[in-house]
């Protein structure tokens, strides 16, 4: 389908203050943004995620996370808030990936940023498949865009238990981005408990060096809420609030890890909920 304005050349004539110029056509701009979105590797399920259609309900920490996500995209790439990336932590289904992708899409659409989404486990799998200790070029073909993206979303950090190779690879990525002051949004199911003995805390899952970098690079936003995957179709805020209240066991972090009971109790207390039903 051709463009009547520019005959598909991407350039069109424009007159301003009596001076004729040749400028980029609107179709070229739209095409460029579409290419950026395409290149960001956002999974089909999340391609429509937006900050404005994220359903909220009275849940202080969730609301704070949404506010912070909005502030990040508004101030991107500069400003007080956008100096730091985000680390969204909480149990499954509460919208961490949704929020991360919504921010990613917004900065691509409004700022023309080069954005990239990777599920951490997928990324490691892809790198591993090209890994050759003698020739590191194929590996670097994958790594280069990950290290260079203006904004990177690394989804589900800690889902792959750390090993020497995983740690070295993740360190290279995180450290390069840290040194270059590039923004990264991480998500994780693993609670950032200060308990070093807990094998399911974030630090144990990702390694203490990356953990330390993350704290410097990101604002940590830990929240919980209703598991959207268990909500009725097109739920309202009231539906989600009811679901969240009805399932206090889901408020523990992380649901699939067996964190120490006392950490869960502490969290329950912070939420003002009486910890009778601890779920796991
Ligand atoms: N508050 C919300 N408003 C609208 N859609 C939501 C909300 N929370 C979650 N969703 C939707 O529910 C689905 C699950 O959310 P998402 O994948 O973001 O959860 P998650 O916190 O990343 O879970 P996990 O820890 O399992 O990765 C997605 O399709 C997402 O768009
Ligand atoms: Mg997720
Ligand atoms: Zn055109």
Features:
280 residues, alpha/beta, five-stranded parallel beta sheet, globular, disordered C terminus, binds adenosine-5'-triphosphate, binds magnesium ion, binds zinc ion
Describe this structure in words.
The protein has 280 residues and is an alpha/beta fold. It has helices at 26-39, 60-75, 79-82, 96-111, 120-130, 137-148, 164-179, 202-206, 208-217, 237-246, 261-270; strands at 11-16, 19-24, 85-89, 115-119, 151-155, 183-188, 218-222. 44% of the residues lie in helices and 14% in strands. The strands form 2 sheets. The chain has a 5-stranded parallel β-sheet, with helices on both faces. A two-stranded antiparallel ribbon has the order 1-2. Helix 2 (60-75) packs parallel to helix 4 (96-111), helix 5 (120-130) packs antiparallel against helix 6 and helix 7 runs parallel beside helix 9 (208-217). The protein starts with 10 loop residues before the first strand and ends in a 10-residue tail after the last helix. Bound molecules: adenosine-5'-triphosphate, magnesium ion and zinc ion. Adenosine-5'-triphosphate (ATP) binds next to helix 4.
SSE blueprint:
Blueprint: E1 11-16, E2 19-24, H1 26-39, H2 60-75, H3 79-82, E3 85-89, H4 96-111, E4 115-119, H5 120-130, H6 137-148, E5 151-155, H7 164-179, E6 183-188, H8 202-206, H9 208-217, E7 218-222, H10 237-246, H11 261-270
Parallel strand pairs: 3-6, 3-7, 4-5, 5-6
Antiparallel strand pairs: 1-2
Helix pairs in contact: 2-4, 5-6, 6-7, 7-9
The structure holds adenosine-5'-triphosphate, magnesium ion and zinc ion.
Adenosine-5'-triphosphate is lined by residues 45, 49, 54-55, 92-98, 156, 187, 189, 228-229.
């Amino acid at each position: 389908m051709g463009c009547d304005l520019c005959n598909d050349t991407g350039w069109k004539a424009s007159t301003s203050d009596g001076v004729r110029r040749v400028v980029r056509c609107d179709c070229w701009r739209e095409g460029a943004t579409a290419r950026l979105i395409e290149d960001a590797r956002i999974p089909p399920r999340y391609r429509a995620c937006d900050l404005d259609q994220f359903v909220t309900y009275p849940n202080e920490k969730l609301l704070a996370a949404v506010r912070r996500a909005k502030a990040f995209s508004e101030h991107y790439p500069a400003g007080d808030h956008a100096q730091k990336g985000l680390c969204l932590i909480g149990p499954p289904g509460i919208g961490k990936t949704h929020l991360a992708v919504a921010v990613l899409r917004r900065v691509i659409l409004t700022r023309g940023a080069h954005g990239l989404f990777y599920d951490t486990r997928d990324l490691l799998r892809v790198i591993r498949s090209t890994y050759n200790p003698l020739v590191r070029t194929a590996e670097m073909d994958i790594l280069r865009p990950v290290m260079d993206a203006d904004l990177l979303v690394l989804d589900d950090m800690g889902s792959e238990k750390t090993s020497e190779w995983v740690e070295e690879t993740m360190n290279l990525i995180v450290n390069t981005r840290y040194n270059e002051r590039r923004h990264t949004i991480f998500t994780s199911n693993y609670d950032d408990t200060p308990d070093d003995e807990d094998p399911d805390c974030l630090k144990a899952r990702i390694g203490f060096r990356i953990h330390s970098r993350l704290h410097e690079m990101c604002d940590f936003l830990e929240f919980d809420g209703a598991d959207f995957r268990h909500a009725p179709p097109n739920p309202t805020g009231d539906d989600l609030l009811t679901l969240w209240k009805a399932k206090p066991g889901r408020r523990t972090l992380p649901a699939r890890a067996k964190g120490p009971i006392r950490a869960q109790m502490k969290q329950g207390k912070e939420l003002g909920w009486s910890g009778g039903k601890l779920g796991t």
